[in-house]
Amino acid sequence: MQPEHPVPEASDTQLGQAVRQALSRVIDPEIRKPITDLDMIGGIAVDETGRASVDLKLTIVGCPAADTIERDVRAAASGVPGVNSVDVDVSVMSSAERRALVEKLRGSAAHRSIQFGPDSLTRVYAVTSGKGGVGKSTLTANLAVALAARGLRVGIVDADVYGFSIPAILGLVDDDGLAVKPTRVGDMILPPVGRDVKVISIGMFIDSAPGSGSSGGAVAWRGPMLHRTIQQFLTDVFFGDLDVLLLDLPPGTGDVAISIGQLLPNAEVIVVTTPQPAAADVAERSGIVARQTGQRIFGVIENMAPLVQADGSVLDLFGSGGGDEVARRLTAGQDSPVPLLASVPLSLALRRGGDAGEPLVIADPADAASIAIQSVADRIATRGRDLAGRPLGVSPR
Ligand SMILES: Nc1ncnc2c1ncn2[C@@H]1O[C@H](COP(=O)(O)OP(=O)(O)OP(=O)(O)O)[C@@H](O)[C@H]1O
């Protein structure tokens, strides 16, 4: 169908170019790049009365960001001096245009490789624990949000088949508690964005919420299937350029550590433990297995540490000292010490924030648990983004 106001090329008019320039500041909320770079703007024309006509091509039918993009296009075009009104002609890319876009962003399917491999400047942290329920997902999500609040581009791969709780903690769930579904553009998957963090989760591909009483098939997951899923996440999900990628891994040792060692050899490991000695034992084992698969241990976070209450008394639910102990044991025989990055106290607010989809580090940055998590974020944020200190992968002659 012909648009009501046929739209010539932008180069036809100076004002049209000014509109295009303004539209280059409109960011696709899912792909997070200027829509002009994504070839989403076709022709632009401005007639003698100052009426601008913009041809907007959405990536897919039913694009969830359509309203936002159209609104932003109108606002940007209206702000150009000389433009009095804006018509937006919305259409959808042809499959050939969509394929060209996907190839532009991720390369052709035949040549697509793992993102964040050895040549990448993205810092990758695999968050592990020996056992479940120690707060690994809660810490991962809050750490990611704290890093994003520091201006870093952050993504999370939630590969915790047994407790894919990252989407809920970041508010990426519907009324039934189901994780939002990612948008697909051709064979490229766009990670939903929660609290400025790009998230892909196994929970987004399973039709039952964690804790709903239905396993959603999660318990049947075995090593090879998990390996393929992580591989697919790292290949087909379009994260764009990230400063930091956090991986929330299933608790335990073995299969997943081997997968991460193969897929992301430059990943560094953060071991989460609770303070009691029994937890410290299993946490130490998960660190040792990660090291055996060639990964470096960045540090240990102790969670659910003693809480100093308002009246000065100490709530010491899980004892104390486990974090220090794990760090000490993982340091043994190493050239450089494995630090205890933080001791995060028990916090009702941290738990409530997780349940409500409002991460504590933004809901209450002054809470003692927030402060501890933010100290880890500061440490990561100041490391920068380069290859210094990384194994170069050069084989000896
Ligand atoms: N410091 C803390 N104080 C109080 N509650 C916490 C704290 N950290 C985590 N929790 C709560 O403990 C529960 C388990 O946390 P979480 O799901 O993050 O653990 P996990 O190690 O990722 O478990 P799994 O691997 O089984 O998913 C959640 O209800 C969470 O809100």
Q: How many whole angstroms does the radius of gyration measure?
A: 24 Å
User: Could you tell me the mean pLDDT?
Assistant: 85
The beta-strand count equals: 15
Query: What does the overall shape look like?
Result: elongated
**Overall CATH class of the largest domain:** Alpha Beta
Q: Spans of 5+ residues with little confidence (pLDDT < 50)?
A: 1-8, 214-219, 391-397
Helix count?
12
Percentage beta strand:
15-25%
Q: Encode the helix/strand succession as letters.
A: HEEHEHEHEHEEEEHEHEHEEEHEHHH
CATH topology description of the largest domain: Rossmann fold
Strand arrangement across the biggest beta sheet = 8-9-5-10-4-11-12-15
Q: Tell me the count of domains.
A: 2
Query: If classified by CATH, what would the architecture of the largest domain be?
Result: 3-Layer(aba) Sandwich
The CATH fourth-level homologous superfamily of the largest domain:
P-loop containing nucleotide triphosphate hydrolases
The profile of the biggest β sheet is: 8 strands, mixed
Protein name: Iron-sulfur cluster carrier protein
Domain MIP18 family-like: 17-88
InterPro entries: FSCA_dom_sf (IPR034904), MIP18-like (IPR002744), Mrp/NBP35_ATP-bd (IPR019591), NUBPL-like (IPR044304), P-loop_NTPase (IPR027417), YlxH/NBP35 (IPR033756)
Function: Binds and transfers iron-sulfur (Fe-S) clusters to target apoproteins. Can hydrolyze ATP.
